[in-house]
Amino acid sequence: MTILRRRMTALLLILACMLTLCAPAFAADSLQAENPFTDVPADAYYYKPVVEMTAAGLFSGVTETTFCPNMDMSRGMLVAVLYRMEGSPEADPETKYTDVSPTQYYAKAVAWADENRIVYGNTDGTFRPNAAITREQYAAILYRYAQYRGFQTPLGSISGFTDARDVQNYALFPIRWAVGAGIIRGMTETTLNPKGNTTRAQGASMLYRFITYYKLAI
């Protein structure tokens, strides 16, 4: 019995040491998801999306300490985010668009998205990467990305929104899908504001809900 007790005591000591050694690693992992931005308050609706999307490397700050949540998100920004989600596959930075320089951070992303019909340009041969992206444009691009990934895109209803008629035809299915999936929420209980610009806070939140809805690992 004495030998057995000694062995049990030794085993408990080993386990205690192992737990002690594991603790710092867990703490270090937790630090990665801490908020580095002074302009993202803890009580903001976009706090968790911004922090987690940034920690995952999908979004980045405007500076090391600022996210600029109320700044408009551009078409180039969204395409770059989705490109990162795909693991930044090899793509030719030379695109068919006259306003996409191969030296820009979004050049390969635009080429990849265009090749896979996730985005479309304008009739004048431009992509307008720096133009603010509207809420319905964001939904349309995210909808095509979901279909590119082979995800189901069931449609919801937007009949409860008084400005539902403002949604353009190309974005009708995407908006219905995004509302039904809880990816896009109304600006108020009765308005969608489909033609309003998407802020960086809204963009991070929509992407976070997209990832959550489809249970993606990032």
What do you see in this structure?
- 34% of the residues are buried.
- The protein is 45% helix and 0% strand.
- Helix 2 crosses helix 7.
- The termini are far apart.
- The chain has 218 residues and is an all-alpha fold.
Task: Please outline what is shown here.
By secondary structure, the chain is mostly helical.
Query: Would you report the number of β strands?
Result: 0
How would you classify the helix and strand content by structural class? mainly alpha
Mean pLDDT: 88
Q: What percent strand?
A: under 5%
SSE order, as H and E?
A: HHHHHHH
Cα end-to-end separation? 51 Å
Would you spell out the secondary-structure blueprint of this structure?
Elements lengths: L1 H30 L15 H9 L19 H11 L21 H9 L19 H14 L20 H12 L19 H14 L5
Descriptive tags:
mainly alpha; 7 helices; 218 residues; single chain; globular
